[in-house]
Amino acid sequence: MKILAVCGMGLGSGLLLRMQAEKALRQLGLKADVEVSDIGSARAAAQTADLILTTAELAEQIGQVKPPIVTIRNFIDLNEMVEKLRSALPGGQA
């Protein structure tokens, strides 16, 4: 499984989003590759992703893509990340 963490420039907040997603996946007992993308590359990168994590604002900019987009309000809130991944991923109900 591949998760795409999308931020504006593909740097700071994207890396934070990736680290929190990786922690949440471990907590859920799930495995996935989490890659970071900037908003300019997100639509192309989405073609090979199973899920996208980003903010609501950037989700609007990404538009309609094949994988589901999960919006995260607080990148440092691990509980939010766990709950949203639990709801969005197969096997996340464990």
Question: How would you explain this protein's 3D organization?
Answer:
This protein is an alpha/beta fold. The protein has a single domain, classed as Rossmann fold (3-Layer(aba) Sandwich), CATH 3.40.50.2300. The chain is 45% helix and 20% strand. The protein is built from four helices and four strands. The protein has helices spanning 12-28, 39-45, 56-62, 78-88; strands spanning 2-7, 33-38, 51-54, 69-71. The chain has a four-stranded parallel sheet. α1 (12-28) crosses α4. The mean pLDDT is 90.
Flag low-confidence runs.
none
User: Mean pLDDT, rounded to whole units?
Assistant: 90
Number of strands: 4
Helicity range: 40-55%
Strand content: 15-25%
Strand order of the largest sheet: 2-1-3-4
Please tally the helical runs, counting DSSP H or I stretches of 4 or more residues: 4
CATH architecture: 3-Layer(aba) Sandwich
Shape: globular
Order of helices and strands: EHEHEHEH
Instruction: Please state the oligomeric state of the protein chains shown.
Output: single chain
Q: State the major sheet.
A: 4 strands, parallel
Number of domains: 1
Q: Give the termini distance in whole angstroms.
A: 17 Å
Per the CATH scheme, the topology name is Rossmann fold
CATH class value? Alpha Beta
The secondary structure category is alpha/beta
